[in-house]
From TrEMBL:
GO molecular function, one term: NAD binding
Family: Belongs to the UDP-glucose/GDP-mannose dehydrogenase family.
Organism in which the protein naturally occurs: Schizothecium vesticola
Active site per UniProt: 395 (nucleophile)
The protein's name in its UniProt record: UDP-glucose 6-dehydrogenase
EC category name: oxidoreductase
Domain UDP-glucose/GDP-mannose dehydrogenase C-terminal: 451-563
Family annotation (SUPFAM superfamilies): 6-phosphogluconate dehydrogenase C-terminal domain-like, NAD(P)-binding Rossmann-fold domains, UDP-glucose/GDP-mannose dehydrogenase C-terminal domain
Binding site for substrate: 279-282, 337, 384-388, 392, 458
BP GO terms, sorted: glycosaminoglycan biosynthetic process; polysaccharide biosynthetic process
Gene Ontology cellular-component terms listed: nucleus
Record flagged with keyword NAD: yes
Residues that bind NAD(+): 133, 138, 210, 249, 282, 398, 465
PANTHER family cross-referenced by the UniProt entry: UDP-GLUCOSE 6-DEHYDROGENASE (PTHR11374:SF3), UDP-GLUCOSE DEHYDROGENASE/UDP-MANNAC DEHYDROGENASE (PTHR11374)
């Protein structure tokens, strides 16, 4: 191996990594060395496992190219050579160093691919943000008016950055002066042009899927990082020496694996690998991204690692207060993400365990009262204490399994057991619920219809992956009911069907499940209603509140006078504040400043328009008085999310069984 390679690419002009002396910590083990020397022989899984089984980990993943343990000194990349043009990085230049960011993976929620990329682009209009994915249908959806995911406020953010805005001038009576907002140029691109986007970017976020392995070593517990491996290989081949950010949730040690792959393919090129896990929750993605509790950045504890972290920090600093940006080492960052999810899930399992006790005590103990009481303790706080049928979704279970796998690899079996007990309670809770339904119907569902309200793993999202509902439906359908009729106000019928099919039920049982496009069809003739997702729609139409103000009925005064704020260009944060002001004064809709460009109309037969209309429809709220007349006696409601007003429903003639409420 000689350096530099003839096809070595030119360094990026104003960013250099100078830590030649801070080379990879010795090779102690064959692990790093072997993969650098014998490509393809060490799998990433093996790599990660090895990096943890040899004792105290080196917490500073090296810069690739900062020295390979297998190379003689004379072969080490030379920091003083052409790859390193500057002696020191002028931090003041960092912000301007980043001209283009690439996100690899525009996933369902696209931990980053979609919402995070959109919000970064929104707040950094001077940076071109390119989101690439191999899935062309997904990309097409991101480029349309029907985004592949349903998140409040996301379409507006995407439209602003993806399509650009028009010039607008706003005059507000209370503001005393007109404000002119210049048109924004588009700076968010969704495409399948992976190579082009990667090669033009100074920062590359890897946000591909990391599901639990389904076969081979570690099946059912270890995270499958093959998509990360594959994306990294593409990055290694086409990137020009840049900052690589692992955004996906990954096992500890993955940053090192990424470094290794990069180094193998491009030993002469400088890369710095950062960990910056995403903490957004589905359903509140835009809010979480706009106002994050924290942005976590893990880097190598080297000068170049810290510099790379500082470049990323600058991107977030466009809208995130400095004190909310936390920098740590890479391993801590990777571990913190898994632990955050495990501890959130642990709170849910704890309160669900309490709910079982409340039900058995039978003296009126109510889990909601318990949650309220303990949540008032500042040390505990009120969040994530809602008892229910258990947690679902694509993250908690897989991340707890990954954490437990790591603990086992470290021979900490008791610790692994501790984390796994969170999942056991979760499973126990949903089985308990299904059993309660069957018992409530005299031990048999034969000949009966059961209505299931809610299929998404939580409200506010159309994500059906690993929904609790599918497990409960599978348990119920085993009782061979006449029909299980499912309705969810946010999910597409096809997505529900696909998830049900993935649950591998017998065809005969699968045929007993029908998916309805409205709640009336679901509850008509049902012996029991099960509420599995806490959609507000199920609380009853009173709970939905007044309908949204009619859109576009009143407008801000558009400008005769104009004050050009060009030299003090408004940040998008300030524009948002201005929008809030306009909304307050005029109760205006989504785009109160009328900045957005009009969207091209869809063809009249567009199916997605129909789905979106259903989602946005407040009139979809369940009218329980009407339900009472449509159901079979004794009108059982199993409220798996404690969303209905039980007293009110009992007044209407229902028998309500909530979670964690004594008889
Ligand atoms: N879903 C969430 O709310 C959330 C939140 C925080 C973190 N995360 C983490 O983010 C990661 C992604 O999650 P997701 O929900 O977006 O997953 P996803 O499965 O919905 O999407 C992953 C996307 O990556 C694409 N992809 C895979 N390999 C690729 C490659 N080589 N090149 C280009 N595209 C490629 C796939 O086509 C897919 O569209 C996971 O690690 C997850 O744990 C998710
Ligand atoms: O008090 C509660 C809170 C939540 N849930 C359930 O828990 C699951 C997960 O909910 P939530 O955490 O809100 O949604 P996710 O989108 O799965 O977000 C989690 O997983 C993401 C992916 O890693 C992280 O980024 C987020 O911080 C973390 O909250 C859902 O089924 C909820 O219904 C409860 O049962 N009770």
């Amino acid at each position: 191996m000689s350096l530099p390679r003839p096809d070595a690419e030119a360094p990026l002009p104003s960013f250099s990594f100078l830590d030649n002396h801070l080379v990879r910590s010795p090779p102690s083990s064959q692990s790093v060395a072997s993969s650098a020397a014998s490509p393809g022989t060490a799998s990433p899984d093996a790599w990660i496992a090895k990096s943890w089984t040899r004792g105290t980990p080196d917490t500073s993943p090296p810069s690739s190219g900062s020295g390979s343990p297998n190379l003689k000194p004379s072969q080490q990349p030379n920091d003083a050579g052409p790859l390193c043009m500057k002696e020191s990085l002028n931090l003041a230049q960092d912000a301007s160093y980043v001209k283009s960011i690439c996100f690899v993976g525009a996933g369902f929620v696209g931990a980053a691919g979609g919402p995070t990329a959109a919000v970064i682009a929104y707040h950094n209009p001077h940076i071109l943000v390119h989101v690439v994915d191999l899935n062309e249908h997904r990309v097409a959806a991101w480029n349309s008016r029907h985004l592949p995911i349903h998140e409040e406020g996301l379409l507006k953010v995407v439209r602003t950055a993806r399509d650009g805005t028009v010039d607008t001038t706003v005059t507000l009576p209370g503001l005393g002066r007109p404000v002119q907002l210049e048109a924004r140029q588009p700076n968010l691109v969704f495409s399948t042009r992976v190579v082009e986007a990667i090669s033009g970017a100074q920062i590359i976020f890897i946000c591909v899927n990391t599901p639990t392995k389904t076969h081979g070593l570690g099946a059912g517990s270890m995270a499958d990082v093959s998509a990360i491996e594959s994306a990294t290989r593409t990055v290694a081949k086409h990137a020009r020496g840049s900052i690589i950010v692992e955004k996906s949730t990954v096992p500890c040690g993955t940053a090192r694996m990424i470094q290794d792959i990069l180094h193998y393919h491009r030993p002469e090129t400088r890369f710095e690998v950062l960990s910056s896990p995403e903490f957004l929750a589905e359903g509140t993605a835009v809010r979480d991204l706009m106002h994050p509790d924290r942005i976590l950045i893990g880097s190598a504890q080297t000068r170049s690692g810290r510099r790379a972290a500082s470049v990323l920090r600058d991107v977030y600093a466009a809208w995130v207060p400095d004190e909310r940006i936390v920098t740590v080492n890479t391993f801590s960052s990777e571990l913190a993400k898994l632990v955050a999810n495990a501890m959130l899930a642990q709170r849910i399992s704890s309160i669900n365990a309490v709910s079982a006790m409340c039900e058995e005590i039978g003296l009126g103990a109510d889990v909601e009262d318990v949650g309220l009481a303990i949540g008032k303790d500042n040390r505990l706080g009120p969040m994530f204490l809602r008892a229910g049928v258990g947690f679902g979704g694509s993250c908690f279970e897989k991340d707890i399994l990954s954490l437990a796998y790591l603990a086992n690899e470290l021979h900490l079996e008791v610790v692994a057991e501790y984390w796994l007990s969170i999942l056991r309670i979760n499973e126990y809770q949903r089985q308990r619920f299904a059993n309660n339904v069957v018992r409530g119907l005299n031990g048999s569902l034969r000949g009966k219809k059961i209505a299931v309200l809610g299929f998404a793993f939580k409200d506010g999202t159309n994500d059906t992956r690993n929904s609790i509902a599918v497990h409960i439906i599978r348990d119920l359908v085993e009782e061979v009911p006449r029909e299980i009729a499912v309705f969810d106000p946010g999910c597409a019928i096809d997505d529900i069907l696909e998830e049900a099919r993935n649950a591998k039920m017998d065809q005969d049982l699968l045929e007993r499940i029908t998916i309805c496009s409205g709640w009336r069809d679901a509850v008509r003739g049902a012996s029991a209603v099960c509420i599995l997702t806490p959609w507000k729609h199920f609380q009853g139409y009173q709970a939905m509140g007044p309908k949204r103000a009619a859109q576009g009925t009143s407008k801000p005064t558009k400008g005769s006078l104009s004050l050009n704020l060009c030299e003090d260009r408004l940040t998008e944060m300030k524009v948002m504040a201005l929008e809030d002001l306009v909304r307050q004064e005029n109760s205006l809709p989504e785009d109160p400043l009328e900045r957005l460009k009009p969207l091209a109309p869809c063809p009249s037969e567009c199916l997605q328009c129909g789905v979106d209309n259903v989602r946005g429809c407040d009139g979809d709220a369940v009218n329980w008085a009407e339900v009472a007349g449509m159901m079979q006696e004794p009108r059982l409601v199993f409220d798996g999310r404690n969303v209905v007003d039980a007293v009110e429903l009992e007044r209407l003639g229902f028998r309500v069984r909530g979670v964690g409420k004594g008889p």
